[in-house]
Amino acid sequence: MTTADSTPAAAQTGPLSSAADDDWWRTAVIYQIYPRSFADGDGDGTGDLPGITGRLDHLADLGVDALWLSPFYPSPQRDGGYDVADYRAVDPRYGTLADFDQLLARAHGLGIRVIVDLVPNHCSSEHAAFRAALAAAPGSDERALFHFRDGRGPDGSLPPNDWTSMFEGAAWTRVTEADGRPGQWYLHLFDPSQPDWNWDNPAVRADFGRTLRFWLDRGVDGFRVDVCDALVKAPGLPDWPRPTHGVIEPVDGVMPPMWDQEGIHEIFRGWRRLLDSYDGRRILCAEAWLPPDRAARIIRADEMHQAFNFRFLETPWQAGPLRKVITESLAANDAVGAPTTWVLSNHDVMRHASRFGYDGQVELEHGVGADDPQPDRPLGLRRARAATALMLALPGSAYLYQGEELGLPEATSLPDAARQDPVWERSGHRIRGRDGCRVPLPWTEEGPALGFGTGTGSDTWLPQPSDYGSYAVAAQRGRPGSTLELYRTLLDLRRRYRLGEGTLTWVASSDDVPRPGGDDVLHLANGPVEVVANLGGHPVPLPPAARVLAASEPVTTEVPPDATVWFTTGEADTTGEANTA
Ligand code: NOJ
Fold first, then answer.
1. What ligand 1 atom has the least distance to the C-alpha of 434?
2. Which CATH architecture has domain 128-187?
3. How far apart are alpha carbons 285 and 346 in whole angstroms?
4. Which end of the chain has a smaller Cβ tally under 10 Å, C or N?
5. Is the CA virtual torsion 266, 209, 260, 325 positive or negative?
6. Tell me, what's the pLDDT at 179?
7. In this predicted model, what pLDDT tens digit does every residue of 167-219 receive, in sequence order?
8. 8 A C-beta contact, residue 35 and residue 70
9. Tens digits of per-residue pLDDT, 12-59?
10. pLDDT tens digits for range 370-418
11. pLDDT tens digits for 305-360?
């Protein structure tokens, strides 16, 4: 099937098509690129595909297995590209399809797989199909691609149901009909510029099949699937007098009518059959903020391959809750034969180097502005390094978000005037949103846009904080103890010891090593590698025979507070070399 005439050359080349690698995704470390903010090849202040291609050596040097590209499709950018106006093209701001093919070929040449973002729940209000729907009459085939309904109340001036948008306000917007009168309403779980597709309509399913084939034929290795748990809505779109957002869990055994409906699984099975008809192993990763047992249903053997573990991401830096979420995640995914994934940061949450710099008193979901309490940066970074060292020791697959390998903090002092996240306006400036984790990356300590761009201009689409230069790749590469070197060391050891394929065993805290503050310690083994993460306030002694492989902070015979150490105790171990970056 991949040899169809439309298949670009890139799909047939590269070292990654071997059937022997079919299970790559079970253990892969996958690096998320937010194209707008990774590297700017043409110096216009916005990242682009040639910029990414020019920086792929960084990912090869870091040692990741795959990269995931957030959307680069034509989009008005009302929601950072998650408002797609054309699913089978590249936004001119980001380049061309030829640029995409080059990126893919270069990545494959470096041994890095490429996953792209699929945004099937909604499109942009600029999408041709939605524009046609607006121009068409109520009841038309064009409107049937979306959820158009008459309003409630005598004059239809009330929304068709009580659902709220994830970005605040009602989940419905009323349109003006061709005769100039207020007319029907359309559903949007997110911004009004993001109308929800009607997945009950076979034409929607067929069109997404074309989109999947388009990118598979070009040679992509898979898709990260945006809000995949919202595609199917409960019949009749019943009221749900609770917020749409927050923790998505059953209430009295019933899932909210916009989330995790049974019908989603049939869609995923169809996609899986399609992907399996291609050579190599192409994968689907579910974005669904569901509890582990619900998310696991999406990754049963004939559905998607893996799902983000957001429960892990949401867990504070506390030993008990972390041990619980790690154990439960592995159990839920083992039960369906799927790998567990691990993630600490992405483009929707505060960077973990800042998140761990708070001790729980601040409402982080709303974003942080210059006037809000600021994180304790050294503490946040120290804990972030320790948390990453814990995460990368776990079996399964892990996701990294661009910049976390630099220990990059959240931009918590962005001027409000610069904010672009739609939630900032929709919430009446109550919720600051997610811009703080999306600031363009620093590549060099100095110079225009800190090396983000190639031009002479230093203006970037979001301003870079003045101290971002000290976190630059160039400032950290080769510097012992830097966060970048720590990540390189951990990824190298993870690969050499095959930790992704391993099995986790908790080492009892009452072993022969007496530990002050034992409840604050996580001690695990994965194959020959043992890991001690000290989440308490006192140093914890290492076993006398410990040979340290890596450590998030300098260690001697003890693990200091807020630090994680990898070590072996076996004499016969020859795989690892001591490396305490
Ligand atoms: C999840 C994406 O990660 C987020 O950035 C976006 O705003 C929503 N889905 C809507 O597409």
1. 5
2. Alpha-Beta Complex (3.90)
3. 14
4. N
5. positive
6. 93
7. 989 999 999 999 999 999 999 999 999 999 999 999 999 999 999 999 999 99
8. yes
9. 334 465 545 889 999 999 999 999 999 999 999 999 999 999 999 999
10. 989 999 999 999 999 999 999 999 999 999 999 999 999 999 999 999 9
11. 999 999 999 999 999 999 999 999 999 999 999 999 999 999 999 999 999 999 86
Q: Which amino acid is at 89?
A: A
Task: Check if 348 has its Cβ closer than 6 Å to any atom of ligand 1.
Answer: yes
Q: Which atom of ligand 1 is nearest to the CA of 121?
A: 11
At 115, is the secondary structure helix, strand, or coil? strand
Of 83, 117, 226, the one to substitute when testing ligand 1's pocket (max ligand atoms within 8 A of C-beta) is 226
310 C-beta closer than 6 A to ligand 1:
no
φ/ψ of 323, rounded to 5, equals -60, -40
167 lines ligand 1 (CB under 6 A): no
Compute the distance from residue 102 Cα to the ligand 1 centre, in Å.
27
The helix/strand/coil state of 211 is helix
Q: Is the CB of 452 under 6 A from ligand 1?
A: no
C-alpha 345 – ligand 1 centre gap (Å): 14
For domain 483-580, give the CATH number.
2.60.40
DSSP string across 559-570: EPTTEEEEEE--
From the list 246, 251, 252, 250, the residue with the least C-alpha distance to 293 is 250
- Six-digit token pair at 173? 């917007």
Closest ligand 1 atom, CA of 227? 9
What are the structural domain ranges in the chain? 128-187, 483-580
Burial class (CB in 10 A: 0-12, 13-18, 19+), 455: middle
State the pLDDT at residue 201. Answer: 98
The total of other beta-carbon atoms located within 10 Å of residue 563's CB is 23
**What percentage of the chain reaches a pLDDT higher than 90?**
84
Give the burial class of 252: count Cβ atoms within 10 A of its Cβ; 0-12 exposed, 13-18 middle, 19 or more buried.
exposed
Long-range contacts formed by 257-262: CB under 8 A, 24+ apart: 257/163, 257/233, 258/163, 258/171, 258/189, 258/230, 258/233, 258/234, 259/229, 259/230, 259/290, 260/229, 260/288, 260/290, 260/294, 261/232, 261/233, 261/234, 262/232
Would you call 490 exposed, middle or buried from its count of C-beta atoms within 10 A (0-12, 13-18, 19+)? buried
Which alpha helices (DSSP H) does 153-220 contain, by range?
202-218
Q: Which atom of ligand 1 is nearest to the CA of 190?
A: 10
Neighbour tally for 147: CB within 10 Å: 24
CA–centroid distance, 310 to ligand 1, in Å, is 14
Backbone angles phi, psi at 60, to 5 degrees: -65, -40
Q: Is there a shared CATH topology between the 128-187 domain and the 483-580 domain?
A: no
